[in-house]
Write a structure and sequence with these properties.
The chain has 247 residues and is an all-beta fold. Helix content is 0%, strand content 61%. It has a 4-stranded antiparallel sheet, with no helix packed on it.
Length: 247
Amino acid sequence: TVLEMTAENKIITAAVGANGNFALVTKSTQGYLSEICVYNKKGDKLYRRRFADQIAVAAALSPDGKHIAAAGLTAQEGAFKSTLTTFELGSTEPEASYESVGLMLMDVKYFANGSLCAVGDTALWVVEPGGQLDVKAAYENSQILGYAVGDTCAGVIYRPHGSNSGGELMAVSNSGQTLYTAAFDGSYRDVAGSGDTLYLLTSDNIWRAEKGGMSGAEAVPQDGLQVAALGNKAVVLGLTSLTVYQP
């Protein structure tokens, strides 16, 4: 145990940076709806940002440790309004801000190159803070099942509404380019990312997906619950064991 501490308000979610700093997204007080606090490894508070008009639902710390991104939700004329905002630690003014009505953002992650991947219910959003990049890869009329963000690409799993098995994997690069889409059978269980590789776990198989598409299926027991990347291998958590695969 490196550190134990008690937050001032109820925790919504958290994020950990490569340098050991971490951010807590919490409820707030004094008329604010939510706030984000960044701490160093010793638990000293480095930064605090409060939001009066939105609920922050996710945060991410940049690879260089100098910036933080926040995804927030509010309502506008009966629809969700999502805002993705980046801040430089130590500055009170936003570095960049992006908005979308009708999209419900759920998570945000940094790619290794500093661009951002924001995952929503109907689209995956890739932006370059302060730059010109602002790309949406849509999967409308579908139900999102899961997602994973690696160093250079992200994958999102979805299937048409009304379907109860199978689905599709869409991989998107850190520049917002859709690399490929691939259909799969069986019940979706989990997905994990490492570098430019994605591992997709279903009720029957573990799949390896890279820039050329999805291949290398290997049969797995049906008790597989989660998958994690371990180098160029995949580790599957079952009900009673951990199993290493190299699909």
